[in-house]
Amino acid sequence: SGPRVNSFFLGNSSGVNFSIILTPVDEETGKLQLANCSGSERAGDWNLNVTPGMNISKVTINLTRNLQLCLPNATDCCTVPLCVVETLQVVACRDSVVLAHLLIQAEIYANSSFAGDVSENATIIPNQVFQPLGSCPCDLTAGACDVRCCCDLECTSDLKEIFTASCFTGVFGGDVNPPFDQLCSSQSMEYTPEWFPFLCVQSSLNNTPFLGYFYHGSTSTPKVPSFKIPLQASPGRLFTGYRHGDPIMTEENEYFTIPQQSMAGQCVGNAPVAYLQNFDVWCLTNLASYKEGLPHDVRINSGTGDFIQQSVIYRTIPDMSKFITESESPHAANVLCQNVTFAENYTFVWQDEKIEQINVTVFLGNLCDGEILTQRFTVKFLSLKSTHAAELFGNPGYQVGKPLRAANMNASDTSGGLNIWQPAGRGLCTLATSTPVLFGLDSFSGCVLEVGIDEDCSFLRGNVTEKLNSLIQATHVAKRANSSYSDLNDWVEIIGLEPFNSDTNVSTGSLKGICPDIPANLNIRIIFADVGAVQGIPWQEILAVQISYSTVTWQFQCGLICENSTSFLPITASVQFIKVPAQPPIPLTRFQMNYTEFDCNRNDVCWPQLLYPLTRFYTGEPYSQSLAKGLSLAFLVLLAVIMSNPWFSKVW
């Protein structure tokens, strides 16, 4: 049906001649002429091209004539829509012997593109809400029959007989008003419910739900919310104070933002600072993508309508090697450098629900083109009642984002730490540093260890265990943020599960480069609970800390050559905080265990919660409104009972 046909000849085409023959049908016998090797690469309006290959050759037949419909007084065109009706044979011969032949039946219609004068008459398009735009969507070619489109008016009865059994179905095939399931006449469909005759629709097919696919109602432009909170219109105090987790606002009624890490691990430059939530983040940047944050002359809303000016101290970085982690190329004489911010330390002094003071220390340094800068941003909240920075504010419990306090009770110097990896550069363990575990924040970090193919498995287990144990420099963890070192009851002992040690060295012999039972994963689980609240802020205490190891089987990975090469073993450390109730749950009674139909957690119908909207547990609307609606409903029920009584009708 097209002006080009592609076929393939399988086998060696060396010495094979390809030819094309126009094969007419014998009028007496109705049979085709037998294939012979007398043809050529051109026959009539057809050309034959061969692209030889090693074991396969591509044979292409092209039509060279014009397929445009004839205009008045035009030549070299198609006089009828069915322009070409011919039978071709492609023959492959070697030494005048026919190896293969292909029969091609060509029925090609003229092109539908119009090249004449355009009429000034506009096409009238019906209203799509009430009438389908096209009664035959598969009719895609003007003036020609579209194959398998039985609703095409250009298709004669002879042509339809060819593809009658393969016509397009559905809306595309011309059934633009099919009977829908809700029609009463569609009751013959399978699995018809018994109530169908009561709710079916009596309608003509002209009013069909398929018209809704063409209808587009009015649309409204979505409003993008801005990082602003409308101020209260009362002439009194604009704010009633910050609560734990509230975003800190500026004088312009916008969020006070500092770069922070997102859930994906990347830094977000416009992240709001939450009240009483400390954090310490590191962000990677370079000179091309460096951006300055909020200016330090922005005044902060104290929480009660007053505005506080930031107290800023600028300092110069003495050792920039801790922040410049990588250099893409050596410095040239005319390299571009800029004085940028390396670190910003914010200290918020607060009292009750108000911010009293903001101290900012900004560390500056030169960043040159081609260098990677690791910026550090820290936020700490200190109570005005605190005597020194080490003491926590009025709430003795832990706050989210605050480092855990750990101690080594077996040493004279009880100071200790509970840390996780902080990779740098290529992520090697030799270059990685550590960062404290922050309360309430589940973490997962790690580094990679270079291991040779001749590595001793016992030595590898000991080396990995030593590196993981270097993160745990403590024997106890403080229950609270203000636990005293002199009172052992204020601390919980770290429960350590020793890694599995194998006494067999499996890296020798045929198992060279394979070491099982490598303790490559350190798991830290911390159980905590809410034991109270101070000024509306939860009082959270740590109940238990457990440390365990997960083992893996290390196998040396290399390319084509494994000699004198190293492989990598990733070792990780994960921290998981598990919150449990402060008090054990009340055990189920025998009645609750036996009669589960009264258990609201196991059934969709919960009779004990029949009056749930009238209880204090319902928070869908204010309690006063739900109580008023409940009393109104009870009054209507009582009134209906009274009016249905026989004596009421006698009195009335």
From TrEMBL:
What highest taxon heads this organism's lineage?
Eukaryota
Pfam family name, one? TCTN_DUF1619
Q: Where is the Tectonic-1-3 domain?
A: 240-383, 397-580
**Tectonic-1-3 N-terminal domain sequence ranges:** 113-220
GO BP, sorted A to Z: cilium assembly; protein localization to ciliary transition zone; smoothened signaling pathway
Q: Which GO terms describe its cellular component?
A: MKS complex
Q: Which InterPro entries match?
A: TCTN1-3 (IPR040354), TCTN1-3_dom (IPR011677), TCTN1-3_N (IPR057724)
Q: How does it assemble?
A: Part of the tectonic-like complex (also named B9 complex).
Indicate the family of this protein.
Belongs to the tectonic family.
- What is the official name of this protein in its record? TECT2 protein
Its taxonomic path starts at: Eukaryota, Metazoa, Chordata, Craniata, Vertebrata
What would be the name of the gene that encodes this protein? Tctn2
